[in-house]
Amino acid sequence: MENAIKNLMSSNIVSVTSEQTVQEAAALMEQNDIGAIPVIENGQLRGIITDRDITLRATAKNQQGDCPIGQCMSSEIVSADASMDVHQAAQLMAEKQVRRLPVTENGQTVGMLSIGDLAQQNIYRNEAGDALSNISVPQALRQAAQQGNAQAAQQQNAQMAQQQNTQMAQQQNTQMNNQQNNQGMQ
Questions:
Q1: Pure H helices in the chain
Q2: How far is CA 61 from CA 51, 54, 67, 106, 128, in A?
Q3: pTM above 0.70, yes or no
Q4: pLDDT band at 26, cuts 50/70/90?
Q5: Which end of the chain is more exposed for a tag (fewer CB within 10 A), N or C?
Q6: How far apart are CA 105 and CA 79, in angstroms?
């Protein structure tokens, strides 16, 4: 299958166990220039540890580097089969709001697929963009839209737009003041 994710995924994966430490996972991320590592126990995918997990579940909670990965990992596993179509994988990423998917084949983890893998291929850039757009939508807004609460979603969109407009106006005022100050000095 030409559009299967196994043709795009990274196949040299690094994995950890839940007993290893957060510091070990972070060091592996740095060494391999990656942001997520599958957690494998007895050959089976048990979770994933991401840079975000380390930040929010360890560092923000004042955990030390020797904290076991099992305490910080994401155990709700979102994975894809190696034969899955790229378009389906992008849709899955968007629905589940994940940027990286462990890829399995016959019950074994054989690779990782990231939004970046999709974006590097011209023919999948739209899918990557759509997935990233959906991933970036705040959870509250997604829930309101899913519950059919269009009015609440519109209100949140309007609030976000108003905040952005206010920030832009403040930046423009600052720029104008800076320009006036610079002209006054000349």
A1: 22-32, 51-53, 86-96, 115-119, 125-136, 139-146, 150-185
A2: 14, 10, 11, 37, 32
A3: no
A4: very high
A5: C
A6: 10
Residue 20's identity, in one-letter code, is Q
SS3 labels along 91-143: HHHHHHCCCEEEEEECCEEEEEEEHHHHHCCHHHHHHHHHHHHHHHCCHHHHH
Residue type, 174: T
The amino acid occupying position 65 is G
Cα dist from 108 to 3, 34, 43, 101, 180, whole Å? 21, 20, 6, 14, 64
C-alpha dihedral sign at 172, 177, 180, 181: negative
**Residue 178 to residue 180: CA distance in whole angstroms:** 5
**Structure confidence at residue 128 (pLDDT):** 45
In this prediction, residue 90 carries a pLDDT of 86
Long-range contacts of 48-51 (CB under 8 A, 24+ apart): 48/73, 48/74, 48/77, 48/100, 48/102, 49/16, 49/22, 49/25, 49/73, 49/74, 50/74, 50/100, 51/26
Q: Name the region of 4 (left: φ>0; alpha: ψ -120 to 50; beta: rest).
A: beta
Would you say residue 171 has pLDDT above 60? no
Closest of 55, 54, 34 to residue 102, by C-alpha? 34
The single residue listed with the structure tokens 């108003």 is: 162
